[in-house]
Specification:
Shape: elongated
Strand content: 5-15%
Radius of gyration: 25 Å
Low-confidence stretches: none
Structural class: alpha+beta
Distance between the termini: 74 Å
Strand order of the largest sheet: 1-2
Mean pLDDT: 83
Largest sheet: 2 strands, antiparallel
Order of helices and strands: HHEEEEH
Number of helices: 3
Number of strands: 4
């Protein structure tokens, strides 16, 4: 037994059900721990240019020396994540560079 034309019209005019899930947000970048770092999907190479990524922090705290390749070229490989359109390496991320925490704006 099918639906009557009135029942079909009533179903079509009914409001659409509300979406139950919300838009999935990324991790909070104000929490500075290694779990948050790995949730941000760090990368070492730019996918568009295939160049090594480098931290944009002018006072980068990554003290590891560059690695010398078999051809004698010095290469410093840094895994970086993009925060606020800037690249941030793991040591700078854990040190708190680019933290946007309103409680840190107040002077105690």
């Amino acid at each position: 037994m099918g639906l009557t034309p009135e029942q079909i019209k009533k179903l079509l005019e009914a409001p659409a059900p509300k979406k139950r899930g919300s838009k999935k947000k990324g991790p909070d970048t104000n929490v500075r721990d290694t779990q948050t770092w790995f949730k941000l999907a760090p990368q070492a190479i730019d996918e568009n240019t295939t160049d090594n990524l480098k931290c944009d922090n002018p006072n980068c705290v990554d003290t590891r020396p560059p690695r010398v390749t078999a051809t004698g070229v010095e290469v410093k490989i840094q895994f970086c994540v993009r925060i606020k359109d800037q690249l941030c390496c793991r040591p700078c991320f854990l040190a708190g560079w680019l933290v946007d925490d309103p409680t840190q704006l107040e002077i105690a």
